[in-house]
Amino acid sequence: MKNYILAIAVLLSGMATSCNKDAEGAVYAESEMAFSFVNSKQVMETGTENTGMVKVPVYRSSRNGEAKVQVVLDEKAVAENVLKLQTPEVTFKDGEPAAYVELNFSLANRSEKKKYVAVLTFKEGTHLSPSAKASTEITIQQK
Length: 143
What we know:
By secondary structure, the protein is of the alpha+beta class. The chain has 2 helices and 9 strands; from the N terminus they run αββββαβββββ.
């Protein structure tokens, strides 16, 4: 009986000393805020209720404090003169996990049957979350 108790005690002491409490994977300092788009592609339908604007969600890694991130609209979309980036700098309020990029679209320059594609990208140098979508392709079409 003493042998079993001694064996169990040795096993338990070995398990207690071998527990590795280090985190696996990427470790970030608290000061590093990471950002991501939800999907690599999004389709949005517009109608009269959109009033010339669509919103694209952006997520961040922490809800603590305020944060800002800059996004860029691709040159092709800018050249078409249908879509315009209303909010090149997205602001997160304290406690918010998500904020929105706002894209304006000009009804005067828009064909009813055409689909407009734009690519939004985070400004170069933005710290991205490990599984982040660094850009998102937005397809805007009329309902």
